[in-house]
Amino acid sequence: MTIATLKDLYIDQLQDIYSANKQSLEATKKMHEKATSDALKEALKAGVDGIGEGIEQVGKIIKSHDAEPTGEFCKGMEGLVKEVKAHALEADIEDKDVLDASIITQYQRMTHYGLAGYGTVVAFAKRLGLNDDAKTLQTCLDNTYSGDRTMTDIATGEVNKAAMSN
Known about the structure:
Structural class: mainly alpha
Order of helices and strands: HHHHH
Largest sheet: none
Helix content: over 70%
Number of strands: 0
Number of helices: 5
């Protein structure tokens, strides 16, 4: 896709988020299976649901602009998913609490990538006068922030403390 206008860049970035969400969804499902803390498992399940909702909403927005959601492959998230595999899914971590702490770390790295992407497209949508898009994307951004805060609460409330005691 040639990027000549802010609208072109907006669509490109939406496609990037769509691809990133698809990749992070699969990684989050796998981390959910591997997590041991009940609170973490619950938060990861909520993350799977939230990412799925983001995929649906972003896909609808892209299609409303006569573009295909699959127009871009997010190399940034590809790298983050490789980190998830190396440091959580395939890591040789015997202590379950340390493993949970590593899962939170990797999930939050993916989440922060999502925060940057959603923040950018919200700003673009507002500048382009796409108020309905901006409202939907702001909800996605807010939900992503909420998920990140939940992970921080789990880490600081139980997981990191348990990991320290072993």
